From TrEMBL:
Taxonomic classification: Bacteria, Bacillati, Cyanobacteriota, Cyanophyceae, Gloeobacterales
Main subcellular localisation: cytoplasm
Pathway: Amino-acid biosynthesis; L-arginine biosynthesis; N(2)-acetyl-L-ornithine from L-glutamate: step 2/4
Functional description taken from the UniProt entry: Catalyzes the ATP-dependent phosphorylation of N-acetyl-L-glutamate.
UniProt-recorded name of the protein: Acetylglutamate kinase
Length: 303
């Protein structure tokens, strides 16, 4: 066994058990083969090296068995670190980065450049065929100023999504590539905008009529009490999700995640999942097991 072999093959399990594991995954592989799954890649799964390798391999695994993963990535911490190096202030309002002209340039260089290309390289090295894009490529995402920008003009070039044109992504999927998208987009005049990566993933999932939207993050999922990991809510529908936001149970960075799941579900995505990217093989556990992991949001509990 080579040193690079996936951990599930170097773990101390017998060949018979390995075959058993694959046999149990088969019904899920058959169920999702040919279906699109949008993965928001961020949080610890992107920052910690050991987890990064596993997530990348999981993505390549899904593509290899005929499922169509589309990766939308974040990179907030990487942007922060470059802004600090350049002595540019880092500021957030309501979870969104205040993005003036120079910050926008750094955001684009970091997200569409460094982060995007390093994910592409890792996927290719793991045996997949990744194509890196940002919202500007093929006019995939058209942006407009964030809706609160009129009220808070100094939030700068933060964008909302005006429209999504999924054609380029669909042709890449057809050819067996793994699209990797950063959430930089432009408006009709070519002005660049910085869009929250969760929001971009949700809208893209809707435009692609995806089977699943999976958001990898740094918590077990949606918690009833965010300080108690055991208070995980396993399944909820749009109405319950909205209620949790209104009651303040869901706050901070979890708000845009839950909101983008709700919007994706309302537009026809079959299920949205908020899962713990710190857990090894979180993606495969979500897609290829009955119980899944994390929180699953559906349009209606009755479905
Ligand atoms: N009800 C909740 N359940 C889980 N996390 C919550 C909840 N409410 C607020 N949060 C916060 O949301 C954070 C996740 O959002 P964020 O840090 O923006 O994630 P990412 O960096 O993966 O995009 C959690 O670390 C937690 O502090
Ligand atoms: C408007 C806005 O805040 N954009 C985000 C885009 C990147 C992102 O969303 O990255 P994470 O998923 O790692 O947080 C930012 O500038 O940080």
């Amino acid at each position: 066994m080579s040193q690079d072999a996936p951990s599930c093959f170097t773990a101390n399990i017998s060949p018979a058990d390995r075959v058993q594991v694959l046999a149990e995954a088969l019904p899920y592989i058959q169920r999702f083969a040919g279906k699109t799954i949008v993965v928001k890649y961020g949080g610890a799964a992107m920052v910690r090296e050991n987890l990064r390798d596993l997530v990348i391999r999981d993505i390549v695994f899904l593509a290899t068995v005929g499922i169509k993963p589309v990766v939308v990535h974040g990179g907030g911490p990487e942007i922060n670190s470059w802004l600090e190096r350049l002595n540019i202030p880092v500021q957030f309002v309501g979870g969104l980065r205040v993005t003036d002209k120079i910050t926008m340039e750094v955001v684009e260089m970091v997200l569409a450049g460094k982060v995007n290309k390093s994910i592409v390289q890792m996927i290719n090295q793991a045996g997949g065929s990744a194509v890196g894009l940002c919202g500007r490529d093929g006019s995939i995402i058209e942006a407009r100023p964030h809706q609160s920008a009129q009220l808070q003009p100094d939030i700068g070039f933060v964008g909302d999504i005006q429209s999504v044109n999924p054609k380029l992504i669909q042709s890449l999927l057809k050819e067996g590539h793994i699209p990797v998208l950063s959430s930089v987009a432009s408006d009709e005049n070519g002005q660049a905008y910085n869009i929250n990566a969760d929001t971009a993933a949700g809208e893209l999932a809707a435009a692609l009529d995806a089977e699943k939207l999976i958001l990898l993050t740094d918590t077990p999922g949606i918690l009833l009490d965010k300080d108690h990991p055991r208070s995980l809510i396993r399944k909820l529908d749009i109405y319950q999700a909205r209620k949790l936001i209104a009651e303040g149970v869901v706050d901070g960075g979890m708000i845009p995640k839950v909101q983008c799941c709700v919007r994706a579900l309302a537009q026809g995505v079959r299920a949205a999942h908020i899962v713990d990217g710190r857990q090894m093989h979180a993606l495969l556990l979500e897609v290829l097991t009955d119980q899944g992991i994390g929180s699953m949001l559906v349009a209606s509990e009755l479905v």
